[in-house]
Amino acid sequence: MAKTQKSRTSRRSNRPAPLEGNDVWRSRSRVRRAGPALREATWWEGLPGAARHGLCLAFLLLVAVGFFWPTTFGGRTLVGGDTVQWRATAEAMLQYEAATGDEANWAPNVFGGMPGTLIIGSPAVPGADSVARVLRRIGLWPVAHFLVLLGGMYALVFYLTRSSLAGVIGAVGYGLSTYLPVILTAGHNSKFVALAYAPWLLLAFGALVRRGPESSKMMSALLVLLFAIAASVNLRAGHVQITYYVVVVAAVWWIAEGVAAVRAGRGGAFAVSTGLLVVGSALGLALVADPYLAQWEYKAFTTRAASPGGGLGWAYAMSWSQGFGELLTLVIPNAYGGGGATYWGGKPFTAGPHYVGTVVALLALVGVAGVARRSVAAFGVATLLTVLFALGENFPALNRFAFEAIPLFNAFRVPETWLAATVLLLALLAGWGAYYLQRREATTEAEDRKRRIVLIVGAGLAVLVGGLWLAGGAGLAFERAGEAAQVQAAAAQQFGLSPGDPQVRAAADQYLSGVEAERAGLFAADAARSLLFLGLALGLVALLLWRRAASWAVLAGLALLVTVDLWGVGRRYFNEDNDALRRRSSVEAVIPETAADQFVVQQVEAAGGAGRFRVLPPNPTQNAVPSYFYESVGGYHGAKLTLIQDYFDRLLPDDETGLNPNALRLLSTRYVVAPGVPPGLDPVFQDPQTGLVVSEDSTALPRAFLADEVRVVPDEDVLVAAIRDPAFDPRETALLAAPPPGGAAAWSGAAPDSGAASVELQRFEPDEIVWRVRTDRPRLLVASEVYYPAGWTVTVGSEPAPILRTDFLLRGVPVPAGEHIVTMRYVPETKRTGRLISWIATLLTYGGVVVVGGLLWYRRGQEPV
């Protein structure tokens, strides 16, 4: 379009800015780009760059220390529920290491025994994250990692926008988003650490993929090494799901950069950058060979690879899919009741929302609409994609395809976790929006366009939030699906009447009316709150657009608004009243010990210590706390062995008795702790506080015994049915899936005379079990230890012997006639190999950074080499 006045000059080039819409302007950009910018001459812009960074980082430091004051200086110890479960799971391994100084690789106290790869998986090889780990150990948890998060997000936004104040907005927008304090109080520590390092990984990726063709070979090498370190640090956090999300975001960015490079005739340079990314990725994987080589081996035996596609089943993976309507919680935190008892969304339960606020949403949408950069387009597409992935089973058109076609997509569950990446992207786009507002356009047309964008986006958000507020949440039911029927059933049971009785319906309706009114009140209060912050943000932006305030002051005000907004909602979940933030000396002090636990511990000591029997606790698949005190059949873990899951699904349940007696005996379950007494067991103790009854199975098998007969049952369904058959005696007969050496007959025969065959436990440690075995003829030694072929070896005397899968989930060892020392050891070769690879890669990578970085510093100002 034509202009009616002469263009002002650009401060950088001292040349007139091109007329918006003419050929010169079109040659620089697409029409929607808002022209060249003029730098604003304010005291802030006049400060040296180091001073601006110092002030911004000082503010972020205050935010970090202030928000986490209770754990940093307030005498509180952060112990979430999952942290308690982890600590109980790791107890046997930690005890062994404390007593011997050697690390344990096997956890014998949980799920009948499982590899410790995903329990204590911290890398032994040092890395860039070691400093934060040390700070964590001395008590600066989680503030140390939170500072890493804020610093990374600030650096990423500044790298893209060159605006330090935009970097502050992006940092607090991501760092104080509500999901982070929610997962901390829940005990999802590894997830929090991975999210803390996510901006650094994107920064390293962007620096490498966007490197100019003029970059020197040494600079390119340094970028490759830094990318490898960033990737390894994110993986070393121990939450691959988050790393996978970051990789998906980076892939979208990579596509955008590739398209732009091809259009600009820089396809060759982009291909080189892509090759360097591949090299950096390979080096990053080598850096984390410890512990991931062992974890990859372990995955093949777990529920994470149990489906026909090599991953999780669809229904299990899609649990905790985000609902369409529940996306409102991004801007109205209590739209669906927040978390806990007041939550009424479609997920089984939730602890809190993925709230990012209307201020961040406003700035993000302004950034997408106003800034025509390929990275902004990429982040906008990635934001939409992560939202659709978060919908899970509620958007099967995309997610079913992704589940079946995209590598590793089916390895992860809880789709709503994708919103963690969504929030990161929204905060990043908010930084771009702040940059766009701060930028002084060179033409009046561009300034007018900016005002139109802000008005349209602001009005749209105001109509959405304000309209719902004024309408009292019209369209929101404030009732969980099926909740009315559940309440009626509960009321019927309470009154002893049928669910259809008028009295029952009246009581249920009265209860639901009160609950719905409470939920509607929560929604209305937060909708009004969000509308207030949106109005304040629009007021600040108006001052900037109509030249009533300096850009630095407006951006500082917006950063403060974002901080106050997200701080207020985050404090609902991270505060001194939360059980995860009680005053305590350690994690161990939180683990509850009941009278039933004390009784079982006394029986363990009386029997001679660990390795004699196991206990089936209440809620065995979701309860690891008893594992802190004794060896448990149950536990809590996100990647259980498929064998133990099959045990709970196919062997243990019994329609008549509740618990199949043979299934209990196989895992040497002497005691069952439950609210009642299972049929066939003898009650021996009742906890006076909890009412739980400890029942004893007097027929429990020893942890190792010699079978008289061996039978081969290759069909797994037939094998399961045979074990569950009451006529089957696992003490006499061992069932194998494959023939043993020499055939089944070689290990079968009559029962021995008294004393002719015996098994005596000599030593029981996490990674080694030793028995003295005496037998009058060749027999199969059945060890009541969970079968795991990757790492366990056995010797009979000094000769190696095979470990046979026995009785579906146990280990069998052929033992010849005579007296022998039988030793089982767990020495996973993948762990040794992975550690060696990591050490070599670490020395090469970090040494390379020092050498190449030093040479670049020494040669600064010289020609590229």
Largest sheet: 5 strands, antiparallel
Strand order in the largest sheet: 14-15-21-17-18
Helix content: 40-55%
Overall number of strands: 21
Average pLDDT metric = 92
End-to-end Cα distance, whole Å, is: 46 Å
Number of domains: 3
Quickly give the structural class: alpha+beta
Q: Name the overall outline.
A: globular
Low-confidence stretches: 1-22, 24-35
Q: How big a fraction of the residues is strand? A: 5-15%
Rg on CA atoms, Å:
31 Å
Keywords: Membrane, Transmembrane, Transmembrane helix
Transmembrane segments: 49-69, 138-158, 165-186, 192-209, 221-237, 243-262, 269-289, 354-372, 379-398, 418-437, 453-471, 527-545, 552-570, 836-858
Biased composition (Basic residues): 1-14
InterPro entries: Uncharacterised_YfhO
Q: Care to describe what's here?
A:
It is a single chain. The chain is an alpha+beta fold. It has 3 domains: 464 residues, no CATH class; 105 residues, no CATH class; 124 residues, Immunoglobulin-like (Sandwich), CATH 2.60.40. It has 28 helices and 21 strands. Helix 7 crosses helix 8. The longest helix is centred in the middle third of the chain and has 44 residues. The two termini are 46 Å apart.
